[in-house]
Design brief:
The protein has four helices and no strands. With 104 residues, it is mostly helical.
Amino acid sequence: MKKEHIALAKHRLEKALESVEDAKLLLKSNRLRGAMNRTYYSVLYGAKALLATKAVDSSKHSGVAVLFYREFIEPDIVSRNAGRILNQLLRKRLKGDYTDFYSF
């Protein structure tokens, strides 16, 4: 694995961990929409960190999910449940961000 892929993976993992902390703070303040958004992004950044180790990426969220499935779930490196969680969080984040009057 190339050094730049390792650096990118570490950077994305840091973003994932920061987003988890943001989600915790928002949850403590009962800011559920923001907490869901940050939770989703923490998982997305984690998936993108893993993809960086394989030197693959997508600028689209759905593309990340497809690549994550192909590179990590199909070969049974990561559990299928992880893929389901990513997809569920994506759907909930989209509803929370784009559906009027949607509440968690």
